[in-house]
Design goal:
Helix content of chain A: 40-55%
Oligomer: heterodimer
Largest sheet of chain A: 3 strands, antiparallel
Shape of chain B: globular
Distance between the termini of chain A: 47 Å
Radius of gyration of chain A: 17 Å
Number of strands of chain A: 5
Helix content of chain B: 40-55%
Structural class of chain B: alpha+beta
Strand content of chain A: 15-25%
Shape of chain A: elongated
Distance between the termini of chain B: 28 Å
Number of helices of chain B: 25
Number of strands of chain B: 22
Strand order of the largest sheet of chain A: 2-5-4
Order of helices and strands of chain A: EHEHEHEEH
Strand content of chain B: 5-15%
Largest interface: A-B, 24 and 30 residues
Chain lengths: 115, 899
Amino acid sequence: MPQTGSMSLLKGTLDVLILKTLSWGTLHGYAISRFIRESTGDVLTVEEGALYPALRRLENRGWLASSWGLTDTRREAKFYQLTVSGKAQLERELGDWQRYVEAMSRVLFEARPTR
Amino acid sequence: MNGNRTRPRPLRRFGERSIGEEVERELEFHLEMRTEELIAEGWSPAEASAEAARIFGDRQTVAAQCRDLEVRRRRAREKADMIDALRQDLRFAIRQLLSHPGFTVAALLTLALGIGATSAIFSLVDGVLLRPLPWPDPGRVVDVAEINERGRPNAVSTPNYEDWRRSSTTLEAMSVWSGWTDTVTVGDEAWNVPQSVVSGEFLEVFGVTPQIGRDFVAEELVPGGDPAALVSDRFYRRHLDSERPLEEQTVQLGGKTFRVVGVTPPGFEFPEGAELWTPRELRVDNSGRTAHNWQVVARLAPGATVASVQTEMSHIAATLLEEHAGDNDAYDARVTPIKEVLVGPSRAPLLMLLGAAFLVLLVSASNIAGALLARALGRRTELGIRSALGAGRGRVVRQLLTETSVLTFTGGMIGLLLAHLAIRLVRAIEPGRLPRLDEVAIDGRVLLFTLSVSLLTGIVFGLAPALFAARTELRDVLAEGGRSGAGGRRTPAWSLLVGAEVALAMVLLVGAGLLLKGLWTLLRVDPGFRTSEVLTLDVTVPNVDPPEEYDAQVYREHERAVGAFLERFETALSAAPGVERVALTSSLPFAGFDVNGTVCLQATDSCFDSDDPSVRGYGSYRVVTGSYFAVLDIPLLAGRVFDSRDHAAAPHVVVVSEQFARETWPDQDPLGRIVRPVGLDLHDEVPATVIGVVADVRHRGLDASPRGTFYLSLRQRPWRARWSTALFEGASGIDQIAGAIRAKLRTEFPRLPIELVPMEQHRLDSVAEERFTSTVLGAFAALALTLAAIGIWCVVSYQVAQRTRELGIRIALGAAPRWVLRMVVVDVMRIVGIGGAIGIAAALGLSRLLESQLYGVSSRDPATFVAVMILVVGASIAASLAPATRAARIDPIVAMTET
């Protein structure tokens, strides 16, 4: 449901969100989508279905591992987990974001052109 | 070993669930959870479900994307798993092989010899027989020959060739050629160069155009035309100045100066090795239909086939035979693909050697199989434990096959190296009888062949031991108390392998034995003249070619000049220090061809066409100096040979061989008879008196019986000695005089190429083919016998080791060491006996294939068969003796306490 004040996800952003989400532990797909939704305060929206191909892409690159298991309510679900190289990838991406945000902040909020 | 196989395998844990189902289930779960969440927020169930689907997006697309990604991952993983397993297998195999260096080195060497032999011969077969000839569309080039009354191919006469060419519609281009080696001079240097006289369409026949310059033009293709020559790429590089324009370059040939007009592309050297081509129109050619002077090559016209050309040529030949009845002896024409003409004669010996090489490979592979079997038995404990730990049978087989393949692959690569060396050796010892030898090389094709042979050998000979070992159950191993090995006493597989090796070695030995005996018989044939301690030198009289237009006076002048040159040569060389005698002959024995001539026995005008033996004598002829008979030790049987009395102005004389005398004048005294040698030179009308009879000699080769021969005096009739060969005899051996002859030639005849060849070399060269095949086959047979002996030694050693306990008990119970020894050897002999019997039977069948290559030996020569049997039995006993002695010396106490 398009809401005012929401933004579409930047390309590649979903990947880093997934990695970040999973850095706290093993989760199934629905939990990941819910976490992203809630922690961004519904600002970042995405068609929820897009999550699943993204998960597989990450898994194919060796950053995630998956396995079937049971939820707290004893329902069968596929769980995802960060691999060692997935953690490393997350570190890299966080660093990139950090630099990106700092640079943008400097331009947008601090920098003043000198003559 | 299975370290990396513990990756999560979700499919297994949840049974057989397809990728599609899995994806659907995951998406379904999401939608259910989302719906529940919305209901909790207060939506009605129906609305919640619709809203969840809306937020989710296009489910079909998502599912398809997921499935696609999933499939991709699984494929990648399977591939990685396979590579992983292979790498593990390889690493393990290499570790295994490295930890048994003795076995590994022996096995590698054995395989390298077997595979190397096969690869070397294959590269010969490939280079000589299989590869297309180095011109465009070589399959369309044919040889056309006359067929004589007896159905044999013959060289072609000029008029027949010209009529063929005029009448044929199925041939696009046609040319004659006639090749020989003659002296070519460029500047101050002279070489003996293989060359050919050709007609105008020669290059067109082969579809070749000069890489530099041009082909002959019409003005060069007429009698008296501007002398022009084409040269090969090799000649151009070696002897001409590539810096200067081609138009300025000339070569001297037969006293004429030829302009070099074109250079053929690299690799074009037809006929075999030719480096220079000149137009036939520059040669005197007024010969008739029975003068067989030319070889003919032609290119098929588009749409024509060898068969259609054959039909047409036969028809043309029949017409010509009718039209020119009486003076045409071409009863038919035969069309043969040029490749067949070039390499046909080499096919049988080469394929025979390839077969022999495969037999050697079989012997060496059997050896390896035996050794692998022994090792597999020795590793039963390890393999049993591995299979108990869950390594499937396929896995164990794969592991063992990997080991074998590593072994055969490495062996094959070493074999390739050996093959490379072997080919260099072949080039060195093969004196030019094998065509296209310089095209033979280890290249991609040979590499591919070697690889395939190696891997195939690995799989075929590794499979049996691997399957055998994989049958091992831990239970059996434990029941044996963990002792390695101890299969049956006599494992049938081993008997089979050893028996096969013996049989194969036997076949090769019989073949080699027969060939070597044939060669030995051939070399012991007395040619009727001395071949040792005589040096030969080809002498081409400078300015040998008389003018094209016949002029009696000019020709006589020319002949006198030839005679004068040769006399000067003889005198000068006789004076060289150490030279005892110098002789000259128009053609050397063993030259590979024979020159025949006619003598008229009556004073009638012509005897050429006569079949009456009292009118016409026919035989091989030579123009020689009197010293020829002395230098070659040809015995004089009656009368005398040429001497100073027989000078040019004296009455002509002739010496005949015993056989010529017998054929021409049966039961009569040949001495003093008058004959008229005709068609040879300028003296057709001059009668000559028979002054001597000499013994017969085998001029044509050791395997060819002597031919009736007449000898003309070189002083009186030097015409046919324009291309001659000098023979030198030294006072104390030929080694001493070679230097003196060279020095003399350099100062007095600087334009003469110096190639001194011992007469003995000509004798050996005349049996070069026989020597080559029998040497190679002999080497193969020796190799096979050695490998078989090693195989026997290995098996007996192993069996003795396995039977230590049993033998120990027997000895403890009083068996004499001698008895133990005999028992072991008799065991082996039983197998050798059966293998040998099969070998003999096979050899009896196969040796018939050699029949055409055997001289003076039956293909079932009993002596050879017996000798081979003795050799094989002897080698087998020798091979089993060492381990058998060890068996006899077993200390019962040690044997029984040691496990």
